[in-house]
Structure to design on (104 residues):
């Protein structure tokens, strides 16, 4: 089956797929919540435990390969303003903690 799919290394949400020998890429990535004001990053993966959460992220344009920039972080675990493309969104910290990125 893997061969017919082109031997992908990750699922559609960016989670690593084990190799034929059972090895899994366990690289720890920062989340959007770990970024500082003005920092940009590429979305690598996100939590896929909740289908509604995945639909929400998709509506925001937050998916593997998308570039996000933290515009502002409110203090005391307040919301985070991010830019995805030319659009600004405000997300709660708990959501931002579930989206893993590779800083640019």
């Amino acid at each position: 089956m893997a061969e017919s799919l082109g031997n992908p290394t990750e699922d559609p949400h960016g989670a690593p797929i084990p190799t034929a020998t059972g090895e899994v890429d366990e690289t720890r990535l920062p989340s959007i919540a770990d970024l500082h004001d003005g920092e940009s990053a590429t979305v690598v993966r996100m939590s896929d435990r909740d289908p509604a959460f995945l639909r929400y992220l998709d509506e925001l344009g937050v998916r593997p390969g998308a570039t996000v920039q933290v515009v502002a972080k409110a203090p005391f675990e307040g919301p985070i303003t991010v830019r995805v493309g030319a659009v600004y969104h405000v997300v709660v910290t708990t959501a931002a903690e579930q989206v893993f990125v590779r800083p640019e």
Remarks:
- DSSP finds two helices and five strands in the chain.
- Helices lie at 51-60, 93-96.
- The chain has a mean pLDDT of 87.
- Residues 22 and 33 are 31 Å apart (CA to CA).
